[in-house]
Each structure stands twice: as structure tokens, then as C-alpha cells.
Amino acid sequence: MNNRFPKLLTVLSLSAMLTLSACGSSSNNNGNAANAGGNGAGQEEESFTLKVPDAEIWGEESSALQTMYDLYEDKHPNVKLEQVTMKDDQTLAAALVSGEAPDLMLMDPSAAKERFKSNYIAPMDEYYTKYGWDQTMYKWAKNAYVEDGKAIGIPWNYEGLIVMYNESMFKENGWTIPTNYNELMALVPKIKDKGIMPFAWGSSDNPGVDDWWVTSIVNSVLGPEGTKQLFSGDTKWTDPTIVDAIQRYSDFWNAGYVTDKKSYAISQEDSMQLFLTGKAAMRLDGTWALASDNEPDFDIGFAPFPSWKKDGTPVIPLGVGGGLVINAQSEHKDAVAELLNDFFSPEVVKEMAAHGIPEPVETDFSTMELKPNVSKALDMINEAAQAGSSGYVAWSYGPPRVVQVLESDFPSVYLKKTTVQDWLGNLQKLKEQDVAEKRLFDLQNY
Amino acid sequence: MNEVKRASRFRNARGWLFVLPGLLFHIFAVAIPAVLSLYLPFTEWNGLSMPKFNGLDNFKQLIHDSIVGTAFLNNIKWALFWVTIPTIFAFFLAYLLNKIKRWQTVYQSIYFSTSIITVTVAGQIWLWLYNPFSGMNFYLDKAGVGFIDIPGLTIPSLSIFFVLIADMWKGFGGNVVWLLAAMTQNDKSLEEAAKLDGAGRFRIIWNVILPQLRPTLVIVTMLTVLNSFGAFEMVYVMTGGGPAHATETLSTYYYVLSTTGRQAGYGSMVALLQTFIAVVLIGAYGYLRKKKGWDV
């Protein structure tokens, strides 16, 4: 037995060495393939695999990715695209740290910036120059993915907060959609008297959505320039204008105008059902919800969120929902950039717009056959942007610590667990911490 | 003699070779992360960059953080609820199932069936039931008993208990199975003897059945309390810790801090507090087991 063991050990060691050297060869092949991928079209490519985000990650909404993959695979039959599911950002973070993250990743701007600083994200300036992506891209959208003067990703879409309302109900009752606080306060008692909720809203499954109200309110009371100053400049969260506006929202909520004071007890989906079944007249929502196949027995209208100024005009907060970035550890960066170039092909641009999440590039939507709801809303946003009445969503531009509280603790205000002044005072302290750590969105990049 | 020594050394080396893969895995997957987790609470870390040592700053923040207090109290409520209502309920169900001679496995499977439903689905079911506009209250109203109002998640101070009910519905079947398995091992002759001596049903439960179940009950209670301090899934699915942190637990809080909050260093400090609580509980259990004879 003892005599046989050394022989067995020798055989095992040799096998292990052979296996390891085979793995090494495989890695080398991949490395060469990377170079081949980088050489561009016209040369015979070696086979290799690119790991890319799962096109089904957000269902229909992310299906444009599949169109992009198909276009690329048609042109590069030797390159296999392996779709990888990263169920949340935590999983992606773990994959990055362990060196197992995909070559191409979907990531929101603030996460991308943190990861660029930690050398997990590759700079993309040379690809912007090579492919001319920024010739038609909105500058403000590109800037969401600029850090230390370097482009670190391409913005995937732009999105905005709007009000959807029951157009048929409004017509039947002779109501008009309010454009400011005074008009809103004149309308909501009339809606309530009919036994209908003015606003359907639900946050039990996702307290983060309450941030949409704060975003809409501060944009409309401060205007686009003032909002920039609040998020990245000298305006304080304790500014009397903001204190007054948030206090008025608390009063509005406590008057029962938002889901009958039960918004935190139902989910977003259930609040949508309240709207679709005619139990609520309006709902705050994002452009990403435009393409959902809801078919109520009434017409849906879209409007900007009423200005929270007493006699103001509305502002539509816009932002970049996410972006595509290249893994700094990828051996195939040039190939990934070539894949990304297909993101700007007409097929993909159309598919993104069709789902209500248009790419932030100059586009003529009138030539596209879009669903009527999508067309209506995109036209409205374009008009607002051209008129200078588009603002900034907090989750793209707000100080990270402040956003975390906006997304978890706004109910403390309307449930009166704290005073508006104290709550906003805490936000200001958090903003100052972010200032000290240089984590604010750069004012120059708006 | 040298031959014997060499053979002995070779045997030892061979033993180490067999142990080595498991040992390396344990060192890299358990020991090093465990040691690091004692360091991270004393750092400023966003979860990605290199952690920077910041001394006791996170501890000071923990002391002044009212949300930690709320979360800790919710964990206490969670533990107290789980060691009382679901455990007593599970005990009586196990007792009844033990008395049934036919279809016992079928009933057992029915009670256990909710445990195999994923938390996401179970949470959604209970969100529908609690929905104040279309859930249980809506149908009670339709049935003409609208005066019965189930608050569900509408009263923030009570929300934690309604999340607990959902969690109990999903999880108590496991306790039933544990206790039933223990009951089947009980000495039936003791019950027969007690009956012959004229003891009533509750006297038999209290003086004959429960003492025999004590080791299992101690283990079930201990695991329940430990699980309670790790309460996460049902809260996260149903309320995300809201509204206004009313249902926050230590686990949901440090999860949010470490992920979207990008304060993984401080999140680790909250997690360290949770670990400390677990260590205290295990210590208390060890003490009771040794000194008070709660041996299993």
C-alpha cells in the first residue's frame, strides 16, 4: 500500500500539471483572440467569448440589448456572446472584486464613478473618438458618465418623471390637468368628493420610489438651475423654499390625497391597479412605464408633474437611467467597443424608444411607429427639454448619502416621525459629508 | 527504528495531503473573511475601494444612530413573537398530529407546504391579502362584516406584527415537523401510566410530554431566537424596512447601508453588533445548558 502511494501521488501530480498547463494554453489563446478582436473587421477573427449582460434582465424593457447582440453576432460569427445574469448590484460588485464580472456591464452613473476610481471600469475616450458616438449624443447625458475628465461609459437611456392621468375621467367631469400647486389644490377636493383618490401611489415593496416626489417637488420649486445648485452647488436643503415645499407635501399627503393616506401599505403594482381600475385619477410615474401593455377602458393622458410653486410652471425632471461600461479587466475591450457601436444602430435606437426609454441621442421620433402613449409622452418631454423646462432626477445627480435617505426615509416626514426642518437639516449634513469626500456630481457636467 | 519513524512521518504527511484541500478552502473561504469582518467595522469603506481605517468613528455613529435602536427593538419583538405564538401553535399542532393514526403524513405535508414556498411569493401573497383596497378587508366588507378591520400594513407601529404573521405562516411548519419527530420518540408507557393514575390531558402534556420534549424545545427555541436576529427576507420583500424604518431589522439596515448606501464599513459595524448579540445568546445558552441542566 505504502509503496503504491508515491506512484499514485506522482501520477496525480503529473495529471494536475498537465491540466494546469492546458488551462494556461487556453488563457493564452484567449489573450491572442483579444488582440484579434481588437484588430477590427476585415481580418479573420479567432474564436472567443464575450460576457455581456442578460438581455432579459428587465424583461421587455431591456430587449433592445438582444437586438444589439444579434447585429454584432451577424457580423462576427466567431465571437460568442455569453449572456450573464447579475441579479443585483451587490452581485456585480462581488463579481468585479473577484475578477469574474462580464466584459460589458450595465451600471448606474454613481456606481460607475466609484468603480472607475477603484480601477474596475475602463476609460472610453478613444472609443468615443474612434466611433464618433458623441456627435449626436446629448452632452448632459454623456456627462453623467464623465469622471476626472474621462468618458467612462455610454448612457443607456434617458428617463423622466411625469404624471399619468385618467383622461376620460377628466373629460367627463370637466376637469383640467393642473399645472401648478394652486390649480392642484383647487382640483383635488373635487376628485375626492367623487369618492376617487386624487393620486394612486404605493411604496411598501420599494420605499425608494418616494424619492420621485421629492425630486419632482424640488425641481419645480427651484427650477432646473436651482436644482443643480441644490444637488451640486451652494443651495442648502434647509433653504426656506424647500422647507415650505416639503411641508406642503406632508400636509397634502395627510389630507388623504395620496392613496387615502395608505401609500406605504400597498405596492407600486397595486397602486397601478388602483389607477387602472378607475379608483384613482392620477399617478406619478416614470417614462419607463409608458410601454407597458395596460389596456384600461379609458384613455390615459400624460402631463408634467404640477409645479409645486403656487403659480409656477411645470418642470420635468430627467436623468440617465443607467449606462453601459467596459470592464477594466476585460481582455477584449476593443471588441466590446465594437459591440457597443451597434447600440447606436437605427434598429436598437428604435427599440429603445418603443419601450419608452429612448437613447440620449438626437432622434426624430416622428418617423418611428411608436405606441400612441409612448409618442405622446416623448413629444411632451422633447418640448419641455427644448423650452428649458427639464430638470434633474435626484438618483442621477443628487449627493449619494442624501439619495440614500430620500430612498428610505421620506415617510418619516409625512408620518410625522420627525419635523420637516430636522429631516432636511439631516440631509444638509449628509450633503456636507459628500462635499468633504468629493462625491458630488460635478456642476460643470450638467 | 528509523524505518518506523519514516513510515510514521509519511503517514502523517499523507494525512495532511488529504486534509489540505478542505483546510485551504476553510482558510480562504471562512477564516480570512471572518478575520477581515472584524477589521471592516473599523474602516471607512464603500464596498469597492480599499477600506481606510477610521478607528472608532463607526462605533460612535452606531451609538448615536436611532435607526439601529429601532431595528434592535424590532429584532427583539421578532424573537419574542417567534418563541411564543408560533412555537406554542407548532407544539399543539404536533401534539394533535401525533394523535392521528391515519393520514398523518398528508397533514404533516400540508402544514409543511408553506415552508417550501419562496419568500418572494409568500410576501407577495400577504401583500395582496393586506391590501386595504382589494384584500381581506375588501371581502370582509362585501360579506357584510366590514366592522372587522384588519390593519395589515396601514398602521406603521403594527406593521412589524403583520409581517411576522406572514413569516409565521411561511415558517412554522418546520417547527411542527421538529416537534412531531421528537414526540414520536417519547416513551408512550409514561403517558399510559399517567392516564392510569388519573391524570387529565393537560396534566399529561405539562408533566409527561413537555419534560421529554425539553431538549428539542431548547434547540428549537435557540435556533428561533438566533434566526430572529437575522430576520431579513420577509421584511425586505414586504416593506423594505419601511415605512419610516417601522419594520427595519438589523439585517435589512446593514444590507441597505452596504449596498445602495455605499457605507459598507458602517454596515459592517451594524453586522458586528448583530454577531455580538448572537455570541451573547449562544453564551447564555451554553451557561443554561451546563449550569441549569438544560442538556440535550
Automatic annotation (TrEMBL), chain A:
Matches recorded under PROSITE patterns: PROKAR_LIPOPROTEIN
Leader sequence segment: 1-22
Keyword Nucleotide-binding: no
Record's keyword terms, sorted: Signal
Top-rank lineage group of the source organism: Bacteria
InterPro entries: Bact_solute-bd_prot1, SBP
Gene3D superfamilies: Periplasmic binding protein-like II
Record keyword Signal present: yes
Official protein name in the record: Extracellular solute-binding protein
Taxonomic lineage of the native organism: Bacteria, Bacillati, Bacillota, Bacilli, Bacillales
From TrEMBL, chain B:
Keyword Amino-acid biosynthesis: no
CDD domains linked to this entry: TM_PBP2
Subcellular location: Cell membrane
Keywords carried by this UniProt record: Cell membrane, Membrane, Transmembrane, Transmembrane helix, Transport
One GO process term, biological-process aspect: transmembrane transport
Pfam families in the cross-refs: BPD_transp_1
Membrane topology: Multi-pass membrane protein
Record PROSITE patterns: ABC_TM1 (PS50928)
Ranges for domain ABC transmembrane type-1: 72-287
Source taxon at top rank: Bacteria
GO CC terms in record: plasma membrane
InterPro entries to which the protein is assigned, alphabetical: MetI-like, MetI-like_sf, UgpAE/MalFG_permease
Transmembrane region(s): 15-40, 79-98, 110-130, 150-169, 264-288
Family affiliation: Belongs to the binding-protein-dependent transport system permease family.
Name of the protein described by the UniProt record: ABC transporter permease subunit
